[in-house]
Amino acid sequence: MTDLRTTVVVITHNRRRELLRTLDRLAELPEGPEVIVTDNGSTDGTADAVARHHPEVRLLRPGRNLGAVGRNLAVREVTTPYVAFCDDDSWWAPGSLTGAADLLDRHPAVVSVTARIVVEPHGTEDPIVRELRESPVPGPPWLPGPALGSFLAAATVLRADAFRKAGGFHPKLWLGGEEELLAVDLAADGWWLVYADHLTIHHHASQARDATLRRRHGIRNTLWFTWLRRPVGPALRRTLNLARTVPRDTTSLLAFAEAAAALPWILRERRVLPAEVETRLRLLEPAQRASKARRYTG
Predict the structure, then answer these.
(1) Which whole-number Å values give the CA distances from 248 to 221, 239, 252, 296, in the listed order?
(2) Average pLDDT, the chain
(3) What does pTM read for this prediction?
(4) Mean pLDDT, to the nearest integer, of 241-245?
(5) Which residue from 225, 211, 236 is spatially nearest to 172, judged by alpha carbons?
(6) Can you tell me the mean pLDDT for 78-92?
């Protein structure tokens, strides 16, 4: 069942144990995908452990923590038509990479396929899966699943060439909702993003995470995305809604301060989306408000 259409890309930072578990699971896949790992400046021996236990993995060592840009670095090395992202604490289910590649082969206007997420160790469905299934984004009837306004980098297969052409993940966003900007730029290029319920990725959340920093970056990145791509009216509404719904604490204050300090480059890079893509975002807003509130308070 070897399938040479997809390369798996993983970024990691100081999660040696979790990454080795993920690489063990990926090595068991019947598709036998090539795997590229970008070690974002780990200091816990991650890179040496990968080289020792998984010499078949292509290991990139940029020497510092690039955040999501570590994926960009890896995708430069990808020679297959499709790239599957997963985190160092998640792994693809057998057959799902082939299923995603088949779907992308059959639908040349689809750029990304996001899978169902199963939370381990109990095998329960991630609550966000319901939001993906019930996405309000309108799409043409030929789409193989619900149309999405964005994607989850830890659970998505994309066309590698389209990813590179769109510029990949923006270096300033680092990590935390970094997918949103890339997703709308892909949509503006005429691509469709979809959810596929028959594909599965497993997620066993690492305890080695800074939830406070991630929340700060998530709020900041949402504000940056909003002012980089949305018209003034919707941008103001989303900013005010965010200000009302995030916790009133130091983390939120720092996020808004960082976002405001970036105004000069935001104005330089601001590019409002085409009307049809903006319409999709407006349809997403009611569901998005609840989802964002959970992300930023959790």
Answers:
(1) 18, 14, 6, 11
(2) 93
(3) 0.93
(4) 92
(5) 225
(6) 97
Instruction: Spell out a b/e string for 238-269, using b for 16 or more CB atoms within 10 Å of the CB, else e.
Output: bbeebeeebeeeebbeebbebbeebeeebeee
The CA distance from 19 to 259, in Å, is: 32
The closest alpha carbon to 82, from 59, 60, 105, belongs to 105
CA-closest candidate to residue 281, choices 152, 180, 143, 160: 180
What letter would DSSP give residue 81?
S
pLDDT of residue 162 exceeding 70, the answer is yes
CA-atom Rg of the chain in angstroms: 19
Q: pLDDT tens-digit profile of 176-211?
A: 889 999 999 999 999 999 999 999 999 998 887 778
Q: Answer whether 2's CB lies under 8 Å from 31's CB.
A: yes
Alpha helices in 107-261 (DSSP H): 128-133, 160-165, 179-188, 211-229, 232-245, 250-261
* Residue 117: strand pairing partners: 201
**Is the separation of the CB atoms in 39 and 105 below 8 Å?**
no
Contact 57, 35 (CB under 8 A): yes
d(CA 151, CA 117) in angstroms, rounded, equals 12
| CA distances from residue 289 to 205, 224, 240 in whole angstroms, order as listed | 24, 17, 11
